[in-house]
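INSTRUCTION: Work out how this chain folds

Fields: amino acid sequence; protein backbone structure tokens

Chain under study, with its fold:
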Amino acid sequence: MHILGLANGSLQGNSEILLKAALNAAQKEDPSPTVSWIHVPSVSIPRNPKPLEGQLDISLGTVDSMKAGNDHDSVPDDREAVLTAILDADAIIISTPTYSHQPPGVIKALFDRIGGPYVDASFAELVRQGQAAEDPNFANMKFDPRLQKPRVAGFMAIGGSRTPDQFTMALPSLHVLVYPIHAKVVDQFIGQGVAARGSVLLQPELMERARQLGRHIVSQMGKHFDDAQYLGPRDESSCPNCHLSKIELLGKDKSIGCITCGARGKLVILPNQEIRFDWEDNSIWSCITMEGKLKHSKEIGAWGMEEQQKLKSIEKEKQSWLDLHAPKVPLPSESIWSKLDS
């Protein structure tokens, strides 16, 4: 069993310290799992790379952008090493600062290149089912069996502000990174009032909270998605899937949706004028449930085939837009890298 940590902040910063506190506590709780970590901003990714070899194509070959990119680039490519570390892990802990209400975008850029539809656990299941049924659409497809192993996750998001309004999208942005691999989030928290590097040590309660998250992680490792328990904070209005209270109103019939994962429910006004949220059980709209993932995978495959049949009708118009000259801002790196690539 292995726990992988992802630190998304500055080198030797608060995110790194909290991550190490969580990993250390996990090993003290149970010495059997091994641990390792990656400093996400240090990961090297080529410019406009093609997907890694062997990654899934959820569009069934109908969306050519799933395969687009450069074959060669002088920038070293760490994507395979990071993806291997993620898929090998039985637990993932992400520790990140919060910039402008969200985690720094470098972690989203990384997961956009190696995660999302390329590692969709539900599509892997559709491939397995399709091959068992001898469906020709899936005959030549392969998927990494590590996509279907049990995996848990935990999130720590911190920032200098001491008011919750500055962290509104911090945890939701982390959920979207791990739901494709069907990792069960078992704990998550936000730490406020942490700005200067090392200042987290001025708040012993935050250090202990990180240790608690590490203990929670190790206690749920190896359990299947439905068996692993969520041990983090929650309240009565929380979505039962992501355990956050990020809610949007859908129409005029008191329907609600979870902004983080898409689950649906109803807003209920009680006789005493208090508000309650009644959420659907195992919502097919939630990207966290396997049912929700399967619905989306099937939808993308079906729509891709339908759209593919219409593309020839707009080929000339598309090319005219691509040929239209619009001045680009010259970037110094373009001339430098073109010389290195030649």
About this structure: The mean pLDDT is 93. The beta strands are 2-7, 34-39, 91-97, 152-158, 184-191, 247-250, 255-258, 264-269, 275-279. The chain has two domains: 1-233, 235-310. The chain is about 30% helix and 15% strand.
